[in-house]
Automatic annotation (TrEMBL):
Tree of life domain: Bacteria
Family matches, as SMART domains: HTH_ARAC
Keywords, alphabetical: DNA-binding, Transcription, Transcription regulation
Keyword DNA-binding in annotation: yes
Coiled-coil segments on the chain, per record: none
GO terms for MF: DNA-binding transcription factor activity; sequence-specific DNA binding
Full protein name: AraC-type DNA-binding protein
Length: 299
């Protein structure tokens, strides 16, 4: 029976918290403040996670690839990453200070926001940009709520009704962040252009179809525009063509799969829907300058 291929590793909440010295969380919720320069980042390759995360920046900045775009997350910014989103940490400033809010889909569902107010829940599942740009005035109440949640998690077993208190505090935090996203979304409607909207639509559908479709023509057809207009628009907005983004996501998945010695090159080629190992190797060498087998030998 052929080995199941999981080309980009998915890490659990526990695996990501362990390097911070954290071995427990409250029923799928954890809040922690730290300086990344004091912690060795163990994951430098692209990966997915099985949970949501919000990262609030209080000082400094860090860079990260989310999907196919690089974000420089600065002071008073919030980064939201949903489950199964590919991300890769790039660098962090020495003075960076963060608060991370990590929670499972099950804990989010317990708030019942999705049944009470769909609009408040919508930004978690369909946000165009994961980056929320706020100011000190907007960040202060969020930080205050998280400080209370962090302290409550530490004593939740000592007092009655703490599960309910934590869940309600977390619900309030989600509503507050949702309101800020809605505000940014309205500003985007005023400032944004049709070309920017088209580019984000392309980047949103690309991860869904890249294993089956690797032509600009296919994505242009999905978006009801010409291939030339799609490439020109994406190039104007991002500096890269649509074709370059398609090649990048295929190569990203290929490299991570090749890092698993248990997978043969033929299996990687099959997963990415290349006709055979020869065509995959030819594509890989054209993009990377070396063959898949040589890539595996590179330290």
């Amino acid at each position: 029976m052929p080995k199941e291929i999981l080309p980009v590793k998915t890490h659990t909440m526990e695996q990501l918290l362990a390097p911070l010295g954290i071995t427990s969380q409250h029923k799928g919720l954890y809040v922690t403040s730290f300086n990344p320069s004091d912690v060795e980042v163990p994951i430098l390759y692209p990966f997915r996670s099985d949970h949501f995360s919000f990262t609030l920046v209080h000082e400094g900045n860090f860079s990260i690839n989310v999907g196919l775009l690089e974000y420089n997350v600065k002071k008073d910014n919030i980064l939201l990453i949903a489950p199964n989103t590919v991300r890769q940490f790039l660098n962090v400033s020495p003075d960076c200070r963060l608060t991370s809010v990590i929670f499972t889909s099950a804990y989010l569902s317990a708030t019942s926001i999705h049944t009470k107010n769909v609009e408040a829940f919508d930004f978690l599942s369909s946000q165009v940009s994961p980056l929320l740009v706020t100011g000190e005035k907007s960040m202060a109440p969020l930080t205050a709520i998280l400080d209370i949640i962090e302290s409550k998690i530490d004593i939740c077993d000592e007092l009655a009704f703490q599960d309910e208190v934590l869940l309600n505090l977390f619900t309030g935090f989600i509503y507050e962040v949702s309101a800020l996203y809605k505000k940014q979304e309205k500003l985007g409607e005023i400032k944004g252009t049709r070309k920017e909207e088209l580019t984000f639509r392309f980047l949103k559908i690309l991860p869904q179809y890249f294993k089956e479709e690797r032509s600009v023509q296919a994505y242009a057809a999905m978006l009801n525009i010409t291939p030339k207009y799609l490439s020109q628009t994406v190039k104007e907005v991002t500096g890269k063509t649509a074709g370059e983004f398609i090649d990048e996501i295929v190569i990203m998945e290929a490299k991570v799969a090749l890092n698993d010695p248990a997978l043969t090159i033929a299996q990687v080629a099959a997963y990415l829907n290349f006709a055979d190992q020869f065509f995959f190797s030819k594509f890989f060498k054209k993009q990377c300058g070396i063959s898949p087998s040589k890539y595996r030998q590179t330290p």
